[in-house]
Specification:
This protein has a domain at about 140-234: Alpha Horseshoe (Serine Threonine Protein Phosphatase 5, Tetratricopeptide repeat), CATH 1.25.40.10. Helix content is about 80%, strand content about 0%. The protein is mainly α.
Length: about 230
Amino acid sequence: MANNEKLGSKKIEQEQEKENFVTRTLAFFNKYQNIIYGVLIGLLVIACAVIAFNRFYIQKKNGEASAAMIQPINWFMAGDSLSLNLALDGNEENDGFLSIANGYKLTRTSNTANYYAGLCYLRLGQKDEALDYLKKFKKKEDVLWYGCQIVIGDLYDEQGDEAKAIQYYEKATKGEDPLYTPNALFKLGQMYERQEKWDKALDAYKTIENKFYNQYTTMNIAQYVERASAKASK
């Protein structure tokens, strides 16, 4: 009986708490309903503005930028220094990657233009400029982005900055691309070998074996696994 009475009183207390909570909530809403409605309407207006901006401005600009990219990509593919400079700067009739990147900001195409501008500078041997533009390339096109991280890692490696090279190679290993990911893992393993971090080097090589076996055999990674394993066990 005592237990039943305790349970009954506890249930009554819980129901009273719920009623009090509902009462307080209604009282709060009634007191501040104008402010609440104002905030909700404000959020709705902002959401509508963002949707309209994206639909009527960003999408239109992205289409224009995509069309403008055709000629500079053709110049880029030609590969000679004159064509690469045209790809960067354009001419009287066509924009280059630099003007597309700066003139169509907020668009995906502007982002891609930064990537191609970086590659143009790299082919022209202007590595500082290449690094600047490649680092502007945001992760919107995943496959290209992972490849870009490898190139940035290579540039830092050439500068002798092993810490930053490793940082960017590690970013590149987060993808699942059958070309870029094993390549990044291999470069990461090589960096760790230089630092005599044999356990980490072995882990990088074994990841290639476990996840990208075709590339593992093509790249002849077995010899690196054997060497790193022997060093790690000492």
